[in-house]
Specification:
Strand content: 5-15%
Shape: globular
Distance between the termini: 42 Å
Order of helices and strands: HHHEEHEEH
Largest sheet: 2 strands, antiparallel
Number of domains: 2
Oligomer: single chain
Structural class: alpha+beta
Length: about 130
């Protein structure tokens, strides 16, 4: 099995930036303050934050579906649902969490760890 050195470097950088972002979250500093204090640019921070968010979504088995244009306030189908549930039509929404422009539809089979990860990502996005 060949190991792609570029992929290894990407993985190491993502792990490093995951630690940096966690450190910033725990520091109590704003992103700008943290970046200035530690020699990062704002663009670097947000670039890797986006990369990490995408990786969390990809690794979770969830897929983002295009938003349906509707005037209705009720949600007929979640924007983000588990691929296997979507394909089989089995997803039964039991709770909707709304924050900003995002909605998260969950049911009793949604892992607590996944809900916590998604909420953390949304918190960082605000």
């Amino acid at each position: 099995m060949d190991v792609n050195p570029n992929e290894v470097v990407k993985q190491v950088r993502l792990k490093d930036w995951s630690n940096i972002i966690q450190e910033r979250n725990q520091s109590g500093l704003t992103i700008d303050e943290f970046c200035k204090k530690n020699g990062y640019t704002r663009n670097q921070y947000y670039y890797y934050l986006r990369k990490l968010r995408r990786k969390v979504i990809e690794d979770s088995g969830f897929v983002e579906l295009p938003q349906v244009q509707s005037q209705a306030t009720a949600v007929s189908e979640p924007d983000i649902i588990k691929k296997s549930d979507h394909l089989s039509g089995k997803f039964n929404t039991q709770m909707i969490i709304r924050t900003g422009n995002s909605e998260i539809c969950i049911n009793e089979s949604t892992p607590k760890s996944l809900i916590a990860e998604v909420l953390e990502v949304l918190k960082d996005a605000e």
